[in-house]
Specification:
Elements: H1 30-53, H2 62-99, H3 105-115, H4 140-147, H5 176-184, E1 189-194, H6 201-206, H7 210-227, E2 233-236, H8 239-249, E3 254-255, H9 276-292, E4 296-300, E5 304-306, H10 311-314, E6 324-328, E7 360-365, E8 371-378, H11 385-402, H12 422-433, E9 448-452, H13 474-482, E10 486-491, E11 504-508, E12 514-523, H14 525-532, E13 565-567, H15 573-583, E14 609-615, E15 625-629, E16 641-644, H16 651-659, E17 664-666, H17 678-682
Parallel strand pairs: 1-2, 1-4, 2-3, 6-11, 12-13
Antiparallel strand pairs: 4-8, 5-13, 6-8, 7-9, 9-10, 10-11, 12-14, 12-17, 14-15, 15-16
Length: about 700
Amino acid sequence: EPAIVVCARQFVPRYCRGPSPPASQMPLLEAEKRVLACLLCFCAVIFGGWLVLSPLGGVADTHQLETMFLELEEELEEAQSDLREARAEASSLREALRRAGVPSPALSANSSSFYGARHSSQPASQPHAQPKAGTAVSTPAALEKIRDPCAGRPGATARGSGPRPIPGGDLEASGVLEAAFAARAVEGELIFLSVGDTRDHRRVAKDPALKDISTDFLLHLLANLRALGRENWLILSTRRLCGRLQAEHCERSCVWSTLWDDHPGLEPWRLKPGDMFLMWAQQWRYVARALELGYRVFRADTDVYFAEDPYPLLRSPLLRPFEMVVQHDFASMLDNNRRPACSAPPRRPADSAVAPGLQTCGTRPRHLALLNIGLLYVRSSPGGGAYAAINETWAAFLSKLSGPPYKPKHLNGRVESQALIDQPFMRKAVDELAAPDSASLPPKPASHWAVVSGASAHPYPAGVTCSLADQGGCGAVLEARRKTAFLVQLVRPRRPLAGLRRDERIALAPDWLFGRGCLTHVRRPLSLLRAALPSWGAQDEQQRASCTPTAAQPAPGAAAGVLVATHFVYSMAVKRQRAFAAFGWSLGDARNRSRSAADDDPCWRRSDTAILFGHTFFEQSPSKTVLCAMPKDGAPACSCCRSLPSLAAKDSALREKARAGGFVLESSNQHRIRVDGHFSAMEGCNDYQRFWDRR
């Protein structure tokens, strides 16, 4: 009988046609050729670098050498990754055959010589026996199992009217974009995510851990959204990472793009296809395309956690009037930690048809109204002001890419690729599209944003309440949210588009909806609790971990039920990852997190480290920070948290406690942080760089 042959990759078929050749005659795989070539280049650069740096070599351009090292390191890593993927696919294929009941001595023998015998002194395996007639090889059911090893796993199959799995593809290929949007959107709603796998500036210089942890963030976010009943996401990635997501996680919701991959500006700007700066610009082109096709789009960074489903809130009387809702990047040194606040009694326009639901109470200059596009929801269409802001964002990137690269003096002639970040482009677009708003009272000039009272309308649509398991606490949640004013801007397209030109409004979301958290590591947290809480006693030290029975674990401590989406921008990736573990948010970790015997022990003794959590919203609440114990050995666990009052007045006492061998504030890399002023900065997260702690 003819052998049944299954080939996993393009370079496999030549070895799938019969017995394996001897190891000495077997050509190298393309991936292995790349590995060896990169190793040779790496050695050559090391030798060349030694010559340049030697006394005979003259003065070296260390930046150029560093760049060469990084590029070669990346190429080597990519080649090794390809090889690992090939081996993983072969292993997965063998397992699929085993589960399907298909004898696979042929595949095993081939793969043994394929990956092992070539590098061994032993002779290659002998020709294998052919499968006998009548085996499971020919049964359709077995073949179906081989074709779909992900059947039944999350994301692999459509459920009812939910999103459908997609095979992946290049969004620039004919019909792929339209098919992907149609398959993944639910009731016209699409969540757009982006994740890369290349060594852009953040992974090389600012935060190298992102290179590995960014995929973990994505998996946590997908599990988080799935727990909330939202699976309508589409992931823009690279072709290689999309393949990994499909093969390793059965995540059939990713695509890639070759848009602008051949742009002549990439090389001068030190970019290449797949880099995050390029991908971020691509995503806004595709968000604009989705709006053109009639979809509403929620765009989110992957280092975000949703403690509550945001969609009912976005459709509420409070936020329904706005075509775009985006995170507000306030509470910085720029605005002296001033939250948006009413300067006059809230008033509605005389003509309620002009801006239904709008109730304003003052204005604020635009330099104090900064967008953070890590969380953005848009329901505009061509001809609308919000659509114009999206469209001008990617257009500004393209214009910048087409010009000379930016080389600031402090970089000594080197290219500053961060000048291509998308966020400043959108901020500038919104500022330039801003228009006077006569419906705002007092009337708002184009240079200002209107302040909207948080009490102007209900934050939930009819029939929807807060997310707390104990609904008795919903009144307190509502009251806390009603205190939060936010900013609104009227935007007008520069010119009509197909005869359409509509004024629309952009809201900078109240920070209980889209907010920014800040984080600090604490060693010996019990010492801090004893110093910070005069009433702390033996009974408090017996606190047990808590898993809340809701769709998603809420925000920790007193923030439970109040905060919806928390974005940990301006924190190192490792610190964000540890915070997710401490808060019980690492839902992408498949290990069991249910209560165990260990949870019956005092949770403050499960680890000698903790995460101190601040948030911009805490500026207006009695609890200013929350301290959460790290799980034992980093395994998923229920949260163990305690809310803390303001510690700013105790700065000197806490400093002395730390000096006396008590608690220690640490950076991500375990460097000691000065206590002076740190707790004051935590209250409102009012210093971006203090919490970056890249050391």
